[in-house]
Amino acid sequence: MPLVVTQAIVLHAFDYLETSRVLRLITREAGVQSVLAKGARRTRGRVGTGVDLFAEGEAQIYIKPTRDLHTLGAFDVTSSRAGLALEMSRFTAASALAELALRVAGDEANAAMFNDLSATLDALAAASGDAVLERALAGAWQMIADAGFTPSLDVCASCHAELSRDATVTFSHPAGGALCDDCARLAAVVRKLPASARDTLRRWQAGEVVTGLGAAEGRAHQRLLREFVREHVVSDDRPLRAFAAWESDFGAQPSALRG
Ligand SMILES: [Zn+2]
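That is the input. Now the predicted structure with zinc ion docked in place:
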């Protein structure tokens, strides 16, 4: 069995039999992989009990070429990100980003996405108040750009006419971005996107963090993100459960999300 040694982040974990766990990891070298961590629930196991949700470290993975479940040889945790479990807003935001990575990354290496997720989780583990949502939105749009999906913001997504930077434009998810007035009249489902919100999206895609959004604009951006992910980024109809919990005022308890 070929051995892959790679930096990895735990995106999902569940118990398996009496002493083991199955982990879904995003790795820098091999994209998203499912691994069996034998003995991970024993304190003296080689993998150890510190390998929990959102933890990052160096993973040794024995790849079984014809199988979907590989074997985790060892996982040296370098960052447990314990701060993510201390505040519900941090946990639900981190869960939404993990869901995004699981649904988007595939088994091809995408170092940019790995690095953006890692940096965002580090920031979330210490963020409070509005910064939690602002940091998570920035990270999500960066990961979407890393995956090769970017909404058209400066030219019409349909006819490619140039759009004035300071205009409120119409945003169409089916069309894949902003529309000029002529094309907007023909579009069925649209949202208004003020110039400031379009500027914010542009800055997120460029890797910036935007502060001072305010609660209402933050929520509008959360909804726009979820709709864009649903329309363009995920290729199936399975519900985005962690996104739903992130958007809800009364998000599910952490134990329910760990499932
Ligand atoms: Zn147009």
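Confidence is low (pLDDT under 50) at residues 250-259.
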